[in-house]
Design goal:
heterodimer; A: mainly alpha; MetI-like fold; 11 helices; about 80% helix; B: mainly alpha
Chain lengths: ~230, ~260
């Protein structure tokens, strides 16, 4: 491919790009940790069918599922200052680093996605299990904690794993709001040297390694937790 | 900063004028993905030598690449190499004559092929082996078994996952905005860049995507009802009754079964 691609530049740019992967991983970490918390709260609202709040979560989940991550990211980036500044009297579009907007978007997005995974998993446990738990004298909370939750975790794990990989892929979009992550760095290397293809190839390779690693890990944990099937056989 | 409702409306209308472009970006990759993806799934199920090993490696690897990175790479190659390729084929056209939407179509199609082939493979694997054996035992050939017994069941199993992939595709079409293809998102931003109403522009784009996704989900839930008749062991009598208009011979047989 001549001038377009050279192996030398590939090797040379590798160490320049690696440190910036941390930014993507930070987004992934925040999105997962706080997304799980938000997702559990929303699942609680949906299970208990708390009036008003329930309707809000239905619209919220539909919106988060139905609009592109790119649009959500830019919407928060331009929209959050408009809502928060008048209330708190701040000027967050200047004061906040762009990555805080990325965290906010990803947490809000993951809250919606994870809550549908959790809700589906809890609903996926046969209702007979709940009744059986009550019939042997457990309280509702005990039944949930000892019987339902372990099975729900097992059901939720595979979709959680693919969602986890999906978030990591989406995290490559944060460069559009000015976060210098691995994509942003690849772009700046490109404009500095005039050769951007190698940088993108490195980014692609890193993403491939990470996604396949994460999938293998979730598959392994899923097999470990597959106690239900082992006993039936 | 106040939200300008008029600007939202303006952006909404401006975005809608680019709806055909987005529809092309949805429908072409979806159809290519369905045809090629299903074929790849079949290749892997029937363990066609060489090809099945190739796809078993290629698909997980390619699914590890985020669409935005893939798009950037293809766009770069397109920008650098199109003129050379055209010259090689002796064409007098230059890159200016070729719409960059093909780059987006290519990237999205490849993404859809990979994800649909995984969906279809999962659905095919979930079909009981007994179904194949039973139809071979009544003398059906391989293609007949596939067409009459296996695929109808596969489609009804695959539909929920296909909803998700299609919704994912709709959302991914917004990413081609990054390489400068005009579609809903860039359309909605045309009035914004004039009046600096970016929030309103993105909100309008979000609403259009939201409507599109809801429409697709409605369509699929309708399809799911229609195809649930093929689901093994899950067809309840009530459902059959409500679906009496579905293909006359099917419902007649079902009615006859219920009476007996």
């Amino acid at each position: 491919m001549g001038d377009l691609f050279s192996a030398d530049r590939l090797v040379e740019e590798f160490p320049k790009l690696i440190p910036y992967l941390i930014e993507n991983l930070k987004v992934l970490l925040w999105a997962t940790v706080f997304g799980v918390i938000l997702g559990l709260l929303i699942t609680g609202v949906r299970m208990k069918k708390i009036p008003i709040l329930y309707q809000i979560t239905v619209v919220y989940i539909s919106f988060m599922r139905g609009t592109p991550m790119l649009v959500q990211l830019l919407l928060i980036y331009y929209g959050l200052p408009a809502f928060i500044d008048p209330i708190l009297g701040t000027n967050i579009s200047r004061e906040w680093p762009p990555i805080l907007f990325a965290y906010t978007t990803f947490i809000l997005n993951q809250g919606a996605f994870l809550s549908s995974i959790f809700y589906g998993a809890i609903k996926g446990v046969p209702s007979g299990q709940f009744e059986a738990g009550l019939s042997v004298g457990m309280t509702k909370l005990q039944t949930f904690r000892r019987i339902i939750a372990p099975m729900a975790v097992r059901i939720a794990l595979p979709p959680f794993g693919s969602d986890f990989v999906g978030v990591f892929h989406n995290a490559s979009l944060v460069y559009v709001i000015g976060v210098v992550d691995i994509m942003g760095r690849a772009k700046s290397i490109g404009s500095a040297t005039g050769h951007v293809l190698e940088a993108y190839v490195i980014v692609a390779l890193l993403f491939i390694i990470f996604s396949m690693g994460a999938r293998a890990l979730f598959g392994f944990v899923g097999n470990k937790l597959d106690y239900a099937n082992i006993k039936v056989r | 900063m106040q939200i300008d409702v008029k600007a939202i409306f303006e952006s909404f209308v401006s975005g809608l004028t680019y709806l055909p472009k987005t529809l092309i970006l949805i429908l072409v990759p979806l159809s290519i993905g369905l045809v090629v993806g299903t074929s790849i799934a079949l290749v892997r199920i029937y363990k066609v030598p060489v090809l099945s090993q190739f796809f078993a490696v290629f698909i997980p690897v390619y699914q590890g690449v985020p669409i935005v990175v893939a798009l950037m790479v293809y766009n770069l190659i397109y920008l650098m190499k199109t003129n050379d390729v055209l010259k090689f084929f002796g064409s007098s056209k230059t890159i200016a004559d070729i719409d960059s939407i093909y780059v987006g179509l290519f990237a999205l199609s490849l993404m859809m092929i990979c994800s649909i082939s995984e969906v279809m493979r999962g659905a095919l694997l979930s079909i009981n082996k007994g179904q194949y054996e039973a139809s071979y035992s009544v003398g059906m050939t391989k293609p007949q078994t596939l067409r009459k017994i296996i695929l109808p069941q596969v489609i009804s199993i695959a539909i929920p996952a296909l909803i998700n992939t299609t919704v994912g595709l709709i959302k991914s079409t917004s990413i081609v905005y990054a390489i400068g293809i005009a579609e809903i998102l860039s359309g909605a931003l045309v009035p914004s860049s004039r009046k600096y109403t970016f929030f309103e522009g993105y909100l309008a784009a979000a609403i259009i995507y939201w409507i599109l996704t809801i429409l697709i989900e409605l369509l699929y839930s309708y399809l799911e009802k229609r195809t649930s008749i093929f689901k093994t062991g899950k067809t309840e009598n009530k459902k059959l009754w409500s679906l009496k208009c579905w293909r006359s011979n099917t419902s007649e047989k079902a009615l006859a079964e219920m009476k007996s």
